[in-house]
Write a structure and sequence with these properties.
Blueprint (H helix, E strand, L loop, with lengths): L1 H24 L2 E7 L18 H8 L2 E3 L2 E2 L5 H10 L36 H7 L3 E7 L17 E5 L23 E2 L3 E2 L6 H15 L5 E6 L11 H4 L7 H26 L6 E7 L5 H4 L15 H4 E2 L1 E4 L8 E3 L3 E2 L3 H8 L16 H4 L10 E6 L2 E6 L2 E5 L6 E4 L15 H15 L12 H12 L8
Parallel strand pairs: 1-8, 1-9, 2-12, 3-13, 4-5, 4-8
Antiparallel strand pairs: 2-11, 3-10, 5-6, 6-7, 9-11, 14-15, 15-16, 16-17
Length: 467
C-alpha cells in the first residue's frame, strides 16, 4: 500500500510537471504600437536622419513585412480593427472618435466607442489563460462601459483618449479634456513624473516581473510620436543637424526607441525572450503636415488612402519559430494580428467566422506559399480603396477614381485609369459589393473635414509622373 501511494504521488508530480511545462510553452505576446510615425522614420526603414538602434536590433531578429497595411488611415478605426480582427466598418467604427469635431447626426462625445458586443483579442487571450495588460493610449471610447478593464484587459495604465501631453498635467501644463488624464486600473487618476514614454515602458517592465511565471499579453500602445510635439532637452541634443518639428520628432522617436529597448532587455534579463512573440508596427501613416514625418517613398499621409496613409512598418520576432533578419513581401494587414495571436496561444481562430484577418504563421514559415490576402479594402465616407493582387483603385468624392499597379509603382505617381477602364470598372464594382455588407457609421466628423482631407492629400501626393 505504501509503495502504491508513492507511485501515485510520483505520477501526480510528473503530470503536474508536464502540465506546467505545456502551460509555459504558450508564448508571451508583446504587441508594441507607435502612433503617427512616418513610414521612413526608422533606421530599419532606411532613415539616416533618425536614430532607432533598439528597433534596428529587433529588425535583425525579426521578419520584416514590406507590404503591411492598417485597416484605416486614422488611429481610432485602425485600432478597432486590430483589436477585433475585423474590418471595423462592419460594426460602425468607420471614423475617428474625436469629441468636439463630430457631426451632430451621429453619436457624440463619450458615447462614441468600440461597441460592447465586440470582443477584443484580450478577451480571447484571457480565455486561453493569459494575463493581459494595456499600457498607453486606448482611444476606444471614454465612457466607463468602454474601459479597457471591461474589454478583456486585467491591467491598465494609460489614458482613455486619443492624444495627450508627454509631461504631467499641473498648473503649468493645464488639463483640458478628462479623457487625457493618466489612469491606473479603473478610475484611479494620478499624473506621472518625468516623460510619459519612459513611464509606459517602466510599467510594462513591472508587469513582466510580476507575471513572468505564466503567459502574458502586453499591448504597449505608445502615444509617441503623436502631437503635441514634446521632447526632452537631452534627446534634442542628438539631432543638431535637424530643425523645427523634424528635430522634435526625431527626439521623440529616439525616446520611444529607447523605451522599447528597455522592455525587450527585460525580457532577455528574465529569460523570457525565446518564448515571447514580439510585434512592432504603427497605427497609420505619418501626418507630415502636423509632425513633419516622412512617408517616402510612399505618396500621401495619414487620413487618406494613398499608400502613405495606410502602409506601415511591421516587425515580428519569435526566436526559434521565425527566421530572423528576413523579409516577407506579400501584403498583410494588422487585422491578421488577432488570429495570429490567438492561434499561437493554442486558440482556434477558424471557429470565429467574423474574422477578416488570417493567421500569419503558416505564411511566414512558408507552409502556405499563397498570398494571405488577394484583396484588401479601406473606406471612410465616400472615400475608399481596394487592392486586388497588385492593382489598387482609389475612389474620391471630388475627382475620378485612380488606378495604380503597386508592383511597378509603389509611389502611386502613374495613374493607369485611362489605360485600363475595364479594370477600373471591375474593381469599382468589387469595392461597392463589399460596402453593401457594412454597417452605417455610428458617428462621423463634420463634413468640412472631408475638404481638409482632400487638401492634405494633394499637398503630399507625389507627382513625378514616370514615363
Amino acid at each position: 500500500m505504501h509503495h502504491q501511494n508513492i507511485k501515485i504521488t510520483v505520477l501526480l508530480f510528473v503530470l503536474l510537471e508536464v502540465s506546467l511545462l505545456f502551460g509555459q510553452q504558450k508564448p508571451n505576446i508583446v504587441f508594441i504600437l507607435s502612433d503617427d510615425a512616418g513610414y521612413a522614420d526608422f533606421g530599419f526603414q532606411g532613415s539616416t536622419e533618425f536614430k532607432t538602434p533598439e528597433l534596428d536590433k529587433l529588425a535583425k531578429k525579426s521578419v520584416k513585412f514590406t507590404q503591411a497595411y492598417v485597416s484605416a488611415a486614422v488611429c481610432g478605426p485602425s485600432r478597432a480593427g486590430m483589436l477585433t480582427g475585423q474590418y471595423q466598418q462592419k460594426f460602425g467604427f468607420e471614423e475617428n472618435n474625436v469629441p468636439g469635431y463630430m457631426s451632430t447626426s451621429g453619436l457624440l462625445g463619450d458615447e462614441m466607442g468600440l461597441p460592447t458586443n465586440q470582443l477584443t483579442i484580450a478577451n480571447y487571450l484571457k480565455k486561453q489563460g493569459y494575463t493581459t495588460a494595456l499600457f498607453g493610449k486606448w482611444h476606444m471610447g471614454n465612457a466607463d462601459r468602454f474601459h479597457p478593464t471591461k474589454r478583456g484587459f486585467d491591467e491598465f495604465y494609460g489614458f482613455r483618449g486619443g492624444a495627450r501631453s508627454y509631461l504631467p498635467y499641473d498648473k503649468n501644463n493645464v488639463l483640458t479634456k478628462n479623457e487625457d488624464r493618466l489612469e491606473r486600473g479603473f478610475g484611479n487618476y494620478l499624473e506621472h513624473k518625468g516623460y510619459l514614454t519612459d513611464k509606459l515602458a517602466n510599467e510594462a517592465i513591472s508587469f513582466i516581473n510580476k507575471n513572468k511565471k505564466s503567459p502574458f499579453f502586453i499591448y504597449l500602445s505608445f502615444n509617441a510620436v503623436h502631437t503635441p510635439m514634446e521632447a526632452t532637452k537631452e534627446d534634442l541634443k542628438h539631432f543638431s543637424h535637424l530643425t523645427g518639428k523634424r528635430k522634435i520628432l526625431a527626439a521623440m522617436t529616439l525616446a520611444m526607441d529607447r523605451a522599447i529597448g528597455t522592455v525587450l532587455n527585460e525580457l532577455n534579463k528574465q529569460g523570457l525572450d525565446k518564448n515571447t512573440l514580439v510585434v512592432f508596427t504603427n497605427d497609420n501613416g505619418g501626418p507630415s503636415d502636423a509632425n513633419q514625418s516622412n512617408n517616402s517613398p510612399l505618396s500621401g499621409t495619414k487620413a487618406n488612402h494613398l499608400e502613405g496613409g495606410i502602409r506601415v512598418p511591421f516587425l515580428m520576432s519569435w526566436p526559434g519559430k521565425l527566421k530572423k533578419n528576413t523579409t516577407y513581401n506579400y501584403p498583410v494587414s494588422t487585422l491578421d494580428l488577432f488570429p495570429t495571436f490567438l492561434n499561437v496561444a493554442n486558440g482556434n481562430s477558424s471557429k470565429l467566422k467574423q474574422l477578416d484577418g488570417v493567421d500569419l504563421m503558416p505564411y511566414v514559415n512558408e507552409e502556405n506559399k499563397e498570398r494571405p490576402h488577394k484583396v484588401l479594402f479601406w473606406k471612410k465616407e465616400n472615400r475608399a480603396a481596394i487592392r486586388n493582387m497588385d492593382w489598387k483603385l482609389i475612389r474620391f468624392p471630388d475627382r475620378p477614381a485612380e488606378l495604380y499597379n503597386l508592383k511597378e509603382d509603389i509611389s502611386e505617381v502613374n495613374n493607369l485609369a485611362n489605360q485600363y477602364p475595364e479594370k477600373v470598372k471591375t474593381l469599382y464594382k468589387q469595392l461597392f459589393a463589399w460596402e453593401l455588407t457594412l454597417e452605417r457609421p455610428l458617428w462621423q466628423l463634420r463634413r468640412e473635414f472631408e475638404g481638409h482631407a482632400a487638401d492634405r492629400m494633394d499637398a503630399f501626393k507625389k507627382t513625378n509622373i514616370k514615363k
